[in-house]
Specification:
19 helices, three-stranded antiparallel beta sheet, globular, alpha+beta
């Protein structure tokens, strides 16, 4: 099978039309399977749906929202009193007051349930396949079922166990769930291919090792999710070290010298990626990670004057101040992970005419007055020589031309803190080069697991096992020193768990790891902008009421999580 799955999506889409349900029983359309397909084509049609919903899972309002807006890294106010209100769901999410009727919780749950169901269907359908790819695809489907269950455990505290598509799933929790996911990943470890063979868009050997390390690191949390404190057994930490060592020693991934290239439009070949949502151009991925945060008056593409942002979430002042405190009198942009300037107008305001090919908005954490292509009546303004006219942006599209697109540190749920220009914004992923609407055709693969996290997990395991600060510091500094495309961050001189937590924030901000990090480091019940709720029951999300209602014919089958 080729690395790209795009050629088999058409076949796959015919196989699975019904949404996933709570007992994970999904009808297979036998007519399609009998349409004179070869064993290889049938196998392709079974494995493609296993991956097909990953872009849906990694949308701005599903996995991202639940794992970032619930933390100190992201906040989404009711913009201008008119936008992003959504019946208060984003305010509630940030304040840990989410309910079981939240549509984003429901969408995330349904996507996970359906993906587990599709994995089960693939495993079952491949059992008697004569295709040469059957054994490999079966292993990938089994591993992906474990991955989806790992997310289900992390977010909802439960795991679905099911092998026969015609039998209802068994629901497990806690240590039993950890052991089940562990056994599934270990079973496929020797069967999946190296990343060099299948690429980062499919489950590969290094990805399995990395997911095992992630499982062992979080296992103490999963075993007793409401515990006041967590104890990290040496045996678990040894496993983290064992599997991160495997990834590093295998050479299947290399740290990127350019931090923002990891999230660029050509990142599918970036060697730091281990496992990712494949979004190459011909797969018609989404651009949500790039447009969500930036202003509606930021138009990043010279070819498409309709492609813009939505004034979504910004970072909290609390998170920004962690950068300020780390760098003291030095501006945080000294760190190449914080900011990448792509338009010289920011440092040379006389430079107001730019060639279309040279026009790119800045990346990273965007502060202050924003500059960009000026638009009048739906078209970009041009200089006399035909170049793009670039200048200070204001909220013309909001009919607020007197309000500058001047991002402030202030962002909260007050009227002043909810204006369109409040909050420093994040443009970590590059804006898709072919996105004519701004919403579609994202080019950048969405990172699930990358090599920097492997080093950081190993550092954390060493600290938690034996307080081996020297080895942990070496791993963290190795990652920092690798970013040599510009001036690398200065080396740290000491290391402890608090410093490592801060470093994980700098390295992985807005990569959907913050919630699990905060829980594991004992910081999720803390206070930050607009959030004071300290209820440990909010570490996991409510099971959607629609799912509970759908399973009501089996008494006690699906029980709501405590606290909801």
């Amino acid at each position: 099978m080729k690395k790209k799955l795009s050629l088999i999506f058409t076949v796959a889409s015919l196989l699975f039309l019904a949404p996933g349900c709570t007992d994970l029983e999904e009808q297979v359309l036998d007519e399609t399977l009998k349409a004179n397909l070869s064993p290889e084509e049938t196998a392709n049609g079974l494995i493609a749906p296993v991956y097909a919903l990953l872009p849906n899972l990694f949308q701005h309002t599903t996995y991202f929202a639940l794992n970032e807006i619930s933390t100190d890294e992201a906040i989404l106010p009711y913009r201008g009193g008119t936008d992003w209100g959504d019946n208060g769901i984003y305010l509630a999410l940030h304040q840990h007051n989410t309910t079981s009727t939240d549509p984003n919780v429901n969408s995330t749950w349904n996507t996970l349930a359906q993906s587990i169901s599709r994995s089960i269907t693939a495993i079952s359908g491949l059992k008697n396949s004569t295709a040469t790819t059957a054994a490999l695809y079966s292993a990938e489907a089994r591993g992906m079922r474990a991955y989806y269950n790992l997310i289900m455990l992390d977010m909802f505290g439960i795991v679905f166990v099911k092998d026969d598509p015609n039998v209802a799933s068994v629901i497990i929790r806690g240590d039993e769930a950890v052991k089940y996911i562990e056994s599934e990943l270990l079973a496929v470890e020797p069967l999946v291919q190296p990343k060099s063979v299948v690429g980062p868009g499919r489950l590969n050997q290094a990805a399995v090792w990395g997911l095992l390390a992630r499982l062992y690191l979080n296992a103490p949390v999963y075993r007793n999710i409401y515990s006041p404190t967590f104890t990290f057994p040496a045996a678990d930490m040894d496993k983290v070290i064992q599997y991160t060592d495997k990834v590093i020693a295998s050479g299947q991934a290399k740290l990127s010298s350019d931090y923002f290239a990891i999230f660029g439009n050509k990142n599918h070949t970036n060697e730091e990626l281990i496992f990712a949502v494949d979004q190459r151009a011909d797969l018609n991925g989404h651009n949500r990670m790039a447009y969500f945060s930036i202003s509606g008056d930021q138009f990043p593409l010279a070819a498409f004057p309709a492609a813009n942002g939505t004034d979504g979430p910004g970072i909290t002042s609390d998170f920004y101040q962690s950068w300020v405190q780390a760098y003291g009198a030095v501006d945080p942009k000294r760190d190449p992970r914080f900011y990448q300037e792509n338009m010289s107008v920011y440092s040379n305001q006389a430079d107001t005419c730019i060639n279309d090919a040279d026009y790119k908005i800045n990346r990273g954490i965007l502060r202050g007055q924003q500059y960009g292509a000026l638009r009048v009546n739906g078209a970009f303004v041009r200089c006399p020589d035909g170049k793009l006219k670039v200048g200070k942006l204001s909220y013309v599209t909001r009919n607020k031309a007197n309000l500058a697109v001047n991002f402030s540190e202030l962002i909260d749920f007050t009227t002043a803190g909810s204006n369109y220009n409040t909050g420093f914004r994040v443009e970590k992923y590059e804006f898709g080069s072919e996105s004519n609407t701004g919403r579609n055709k994202g080019d950048a693969d969405i990172v699930i697991l990358r090599l920097a996290d492997i080093y950081m997990m190993r550092a954390e395991a060493k600290l938690r096992k034996s307080n081996d600060a020297a080895s942990a510091l070496a791993d963290v500094n190795l990652v920092r020193a690798s970013r040599t495309a510009t001036m690398a961050p200065p080396a740290l001189t000491d290391m402890d768990l608090d410093l490592l937590f801060r470093e994980r924030g700098f390295e992985f901000y807005w990569e959907m790891l913050r919630r699990s990090d905060m829980i594991r480091f004992g910081k999720y019940e803390g206070k930050w902008t607009e959030k004071t709720n300290s209820d440990v029951k909010k570490r996991i999300f409510p099971i959607p009421q629609t799912a509970i209602d759908g399973a009501s014919n089996v008494p006690g089958y699906l029980k709501q999580n405590d606290g909801y």
